[in-house]
Amino acid sequence: MVSPLDRKLLRDLWRIKGQAAAIGVVIAVGVAMLVMMSGLVTSLVQTRDAYYDRYRLADIFAPATRAPDRLAHRMAAIDGVSAVEPRVTGSALVDLPGLDLPVQAQAVSLPDLSAPRVNDVFLTDGRMIDSDHADEILLLRSFARAHGLRPGDRISATMNGARHGFRIVGLAQSPEFLYTTAPGELIPDDARFGVLWMSRSALSAAYDMEGAFNEALLTLAHGANEAAVLDAVDRLLAPYGGTGAYPVADQTSNRFVSEEISGLEASSAAVPPIFLGVAAFLLYIVISRMVQSEREEIGLMKAFGYTDTEVGVHYFKLVMAVAVGGALAGCLLGIAGGRALVEVYVIYYKFPFLLFQLDPASFAAGVSVSILSASGGGLLVLRRVFLLTPAAAMRPPTPPDYSRAGNIGRALNAWLDQPSRMVLRRITRQPGRMAGAVIGIACGMALSASMITIYAAFDRTIDLTFNVMDRSDVTVSFTNALSDMAVFELRRDDSVILAEPRRHVPAVFRNGLNSHRGVITGIPPGARLGRALDSQQAEIPLPASGIVLSTALADILNVRPGDRLTVEMREGRQPTLQIPVTAVAESLLGAPAYMNLAALNRALGEPGRMSGVLLAIDRDRAPALYAALRNMPMVAGVSLKSEAEAAFLKTMNTGAGAIRYVMGAIAFVITFGIVYNAARIAHAERYRDLASLRVIGFTRAETAFVLLGELAVVTLAALPLGSLLGHYLSFAIAAGFSSELYQIPTIFDPPSHGFAAIVVIGAAAVSGWLVKRDIDRADLVSALKTRE
Amino acid sequence: METLTFRTRELAKVYGEGRSAVHALRGVDLDIPKGEIVVLLGPSGSGKSTLLNIIGGLDRATGGDAFFRDRNLTAMTDRELTRYRRDHVGFVFQFYNLMPSLTARENVELVTEIARDPMDPDTALAMVGLHDRVDHFPAQLSGGEQQRVAIARAVAKNPTVLLCDEPTGALDSTTGRAVLNVLKNVNEKLGATVLIVTHAASQAAMADRVIHFADGGIRKIEINETKLAPEEIEW
């Protein structure tokens, strides 16, 4: 049989259902976020790993200029190597109808007779290539989709200076090319870089690679010593132009995907606990006030001889029903949300299948945080009530002593009517309780303000990157380093306003145990189109010796200005240098390093060289320029800043950064929940007072003013505090969103805070309206006769 | 054999401190024999409710002693006071203090569930004449009915003492008389000692003993040789 106390519990829950639901929702979204984010990260990591495993992604990539096939057997004999696949790759320019400029692509060989032992492809449409037909290719599915190409279509491409016609027989995906980034660019773009697979024999013929390979792919046995294998491979390839074998961790596509996932991981580690913490704090406040309002019933139960433990257990059950109910709803919501998000991300990351995995720890954490904060709030108040004698707890509500509070603001009395005085005195009489309400709403304001600030910070990142740091319109890259005299040729073009040489040199940076595989950008003195800037956007001069690192790279390598850095250049004579770090530059995109162009060329022993040109152009005359560039044989690629900006925007809005919109929505839900709860509690506490006002002849509006006036004052007081909290919160959230791919700097952004204030005030207005409806509906007689 | 249910010596209660201190009880000596109906009379603030709260184990004295039988209530721990209330004391309050979320029977069950030797809840409700309204919620009952539920709740544990603070204070005289009748029945049938705090001096006519309070102390004690039935009382 259900005991009468349990029946009371159920009916009490029903009575406070509105408020219980509001608290439950706040807890639920806090927990849902935790479960969703951790499930999302776990699922993506597992799916990625399974995809890599199933399609045998290489553990080591070893590029060379031209190495004989027999070397592959010697690589296979290296201790710890389980499989080797030699292949040929080369750059190609694909001509597509309707495009001003050819699109860069990478041609990759597939073995003539069998499936590759390493780096297999996943055929999505059409069929595999037949090595008897040299013109058959597989095209990367995402690239084909971006340009509307299908199996059966024909395309032409320039390879090694010669033009070839190809027939697309199938579309494929590969774990190696989840993301494709044109050389020298940081942001992947499906449309602007393609991959085509051809038979080994056909590709060898195009690049004069018969009997040779220019890239070896290796997989390692379990427990192999990666560093030792890398060394051994480098030694084997050194005579054949090896530019340094690198592990899959440094592979472009994998690095991008892994950085994106770890970005999600970072934001899932940083943000949900903040949200859950705010929800827990709210739960604590609400529960403590709810138990406070049960004071009389507690006293009565004690008068009957119920022990403190029995009463405590009864309220503990009430609190648990709300907290656990909310937490479980949150888990379900989190699973549903996680599933939906994972499906979105699976498409974004181009995984061919999905392993949905949940992280049980997130359930445990979500539920236990809710239980702890709820029981903390309940027990603390119960302890205070238990300290009272039952007689004191049950004493008919004695009017709280307002005599001292009445003195506060006595000077104002002349200007205040009675209802205003009631509002003022209630606030000054119970500063602790009011502070709780203010802090609660401030937390809601803080969540909204910080999320809106983060939105603004993303916009700022784009603006700084593409309008302040990079002022060029077009980037031209060359097939190999050329004499910088070619700049003068470009400057002669009518459409070119400004042309500046650049040199990009791949390099490995080392400082102690920290290393990073990146690129050094050589910039000439007095450059105006793309510069190294400090945090105040002032130009950093590039000295004749020394290197300037971006903040991201300096963080990765743990170096500061004045430190010396080991730089292994992976081009030309491949010098290894000790270079002093002269400054740290603000960069929001990637992790670049800058050197004086002349100094970089000197280090390589190749004076007067450049690998690309930045152009500022007259856009009206752009088509003529594009036509000219198309006919320059040394041009490897041309990229437009507008396209790069669009690609970056897309990356931020569909990748890890997209989660900010989900978080923003949750922040708004919590903000509303907090404000609504504050209004509800105030209403519950003053139900009888308000009914009394109606009884003595106050109009509904006048009665509502007493309650809503208080809500208004509390809300207004919470705005500046919430703004301050939100400012600091935005640092933590921005750090969670920043990754090696891009950084989100936090600044104080007044419009964001203004918008958040409008959100909070709007929530207060809606809550006030909802509560006012209840005041209007109050049954005056029963309100005065019975307890609420 | 114990003949006294309550005995107090120099019982004092002070609320607050210093200049704002209120002396609710100023050294009360009192003996209440077993099985009597005792009416406590006196103006507001004279200390009668405070006395009731202390001997009922709801409040603590600040001085003196209060004995239930031979046990000193003022020396009891909170746990012992809880035990004492649970086993021996039934309370009836002026404002009924029913749980609004429980029906009449459930309000009674709230007490019978934890009592040592309770009666059947329906029996208790029948004693107060509410056998046909056991499934009603407090909001569906009149004031007199609510007070009778409160009495049923208080007597259902077979209490040793029944402490009533203004039990008719919120009722009209007809309903009040019915309530007093119930109290008298409980006293007769269960042998419980019944203490009634009231403003209505005429109710003293039904008591075995009448204690007059004033200014935190006992002014006089009357013993009624002949008691009136509640139906005969007017107020």
TrEMBL record, chain B:
Give the family from UniProt.
Belongs to the ABC transporter superfamily.
Q: Which SUPFAM superfamilies match?
A: P-loop containing nucleoside triphosphate hydrolases
The record lists the organism as Sedimentitalea xiamensis
Q: PROSITE patterns of this UniProt entry?
A: ABC_TRANSPORTER_1, ABC_TRANSPORTER_2
Q: Which domain of life is it from?
A: Bacteria
- Gene3D superfamilies according to UniProt: P-loop containing nucleotide triphosphate hydrolases
What keywords tag this UniProt record? Answer: ATP-binding, Nucleotide-binding, Transport
Output this protein's name: ABC transporter ATP-binding protein
The terms under GO molecular function for this entry are: ATP binding
Which PANTHER family does the entry mention?
ABC TRANSPORTER ATP-BINDING PROTEIN MG467-RELATED, LIPOPROTEIN-RELEASING SYSTEM ATP-BINDING PROTEIN LOLD
All residue ranges annotated as the ABC transporter domain in the record: 6-233
**Where in this chain does the entry annotate a coiled-coil region?**
none
Q: Report the SMART domains cross-referenced here.
A: AAA (SM00382)
Classification via Pfam families: ABC_tran (PF00005)
